[in-house]
Amino acid sequence: MSELKQRITEDMKSAMRAKDKERLKAIRMILGAIKQREVDERIELVDEQVLAVIQKMVKQRKDSISQFKEAGRTDLIEIEEAELVVINNYMPAQLSENDISKVVDKAIADSGASSMQDMGKLMGLLKGQLAGKADMGVVSSIIRSKFS
C-alpha cells in the first residue's frame, strides 16, 4: 500500500476515534475515490497516482465553490470548503509563483522553447516536475507571460 494511502487510512481511524464526523466523511470520500480508481483500472495505486486522485478532488471542490458562489448557495459553499481543507492536508506544499517562474525559466532553457507554439511541449515537461506542487493553470499563465 502506498504511504499516502496508508496515512489517509490512519487518519480515518483517528477521526473515527475522535468522533469527528465531518473530517471522517471527507476522508472516506477520498478513500472511496482512490478505491474507485483502483477497481476501474484493476491496479494498486502508488503515491503519485493517489496524489493525482486527490488533485482532481481539489479541482472539483474549487470548481463547485465558484459555481455555488455564482448561485448564492452559502450553505453548500461551507460544506465544500470544509471538505477542501481536509483534502488539502494530503497535498504537498504548493510552490510560490516566483519558484514556479524559476522552474519555467529552466524548462524553457532546457527545451529551447522560443514561442507560444512550444507551449504544449513545455507543459508536458513541467507537468511531471510540478505534479501536485503547483496549479497548472498558474504555470500556464506564467508561460504565456514569458512569451508575450
Automatic annotation (TrEMBL):
Cite the Pfam families for this sequence: YqeY (PF09424)
Does the record carry Transferase as a key word?
yes
Extract one GO molecular function annotation from the record.
Answer: transferase activity
Instruction: Respond yes or no to whether keyword Transferase is given for this record.
Output: yes
Signal peptide residue numbers: none
Record's keyword terms, sorted: Transferase
- Name of the featured protein: Aspartyl-tRNA amidotransferase subunit B
This chain's source organism reads Bathymodiolus azoricus thioautotrophic gill symbiont
